[in-house]
What does this fold into?
Amino acid sequence: MAEALRRAAQLLGSARRVVVLTGAGISAESGVPTFRDDLTGLWARFDAQQLATAEAFHADPDLVWGWYEWRRARVSRAEPNPGHRAIAAIQTRVPDSTVITQNVDDLHERAGTRAPIHLHGSLFAPRCIAAAGHPATFEDISESEPGQPDEGGRVAPPQCTSCSALVRPGVVWFGEALPQAALTAAVEAAADCDVLLTVGTSGVVYPAAEIPGIAARSGAAVIQVNPQPTPLDRVCAINLRGTAAQVLPALVAAAWEETDEG
Ligand code: BV8
It folds into this structure.
């Protein structure tokens, strides 16, 4: 690992254009469950993939809205971890860098990352289900604290204050198209970078999972940080087998200490 970290630090420290792609694993050490971890407690009997769909919401709006309110409450109580802060430090060191996340939490922003690209939306951007997609603010829809699901986990979604349609989470569900502007910006950044650092993603959800391959085929060096092997191993130049909060601070320190030492 030490040699791999040294090589990765050399590549990162000399890169002019850096892209960072993150998945749920970057927030794991903040206590936010990953997407494919077994759901805890209330949700142990559900498969996240089944809940994260428009069909599930229409079939049982209170259950799905309750799940997202439970997740929003957990994120609101979580803090960014050293992995999030190391990524914000990369952005400071490399002006031409882009952070792309599949996550719907706000931990990158709270760690200081400027304008991360959210491919799958956000827990903090609810909107109504009408075609207009009127934005809803949590001030409108909940007193103060994020909704605490009752023991059954159900919370009735609010109605839009503009058109009375149901309010839904502002995330991209399976079977829904990603926001075109976000996807285009992410693909363009990946196709024009020297280094792409992929952190904490299982690389199984498309089209986000195509992004590291786009970078590799454009000549970038892809570095992966993940304690487990993933399908992305095949496009990586370097695999750092470890957790985000442990590996990223060491990588950033080595990248710019090394360069500073000349
Ligand atoms: C679409 C928001 C079409 C909701 C999410 C090919 C091309 C295009 C689409 C498809 C395709 N093949 C299949 C599809 C359909 C589908 C798909 O990809 N299915 C998969 C499961 C096969 N894709 C879609 O439906 C997408 N839409 O293509 O629409 C279309 C086009 C036009 C018009 C209409 C339709 C939409 C996909 C987005 C779904 N929404 N999230 C929500 O959050 O509730 S995806 C969901 O999975 C999360 O966003 C999550 O981020 C994402 C990916 O998961 P990961 O982030 O990787 O998290 P995971 O838990 O899997 O893994 C965690 C990793 O971290 C692990 O590797 C673990 O080892 C590691 N780890 C753990 N701890 C740590 C760590 N790493 C570092 N440090 C640690 N401490």
Q: What stands out?
A: The beta strands are 18-22, 97-101, 117-118, 121-128, 167-171, 195-199, 221-225, 238-240. The pocket of BV8 is lined by residues 23-25, 28-29, 34-36, 52, 102-104, 120, 171-177, 200-202, 204-207, 225-228, 230, 243-244 (CB under 6 Å). The first strand starts at residue 18 and ends at 22. The domain at 2-261 is CATH 3.40.50.1220 (Rossmann fold).
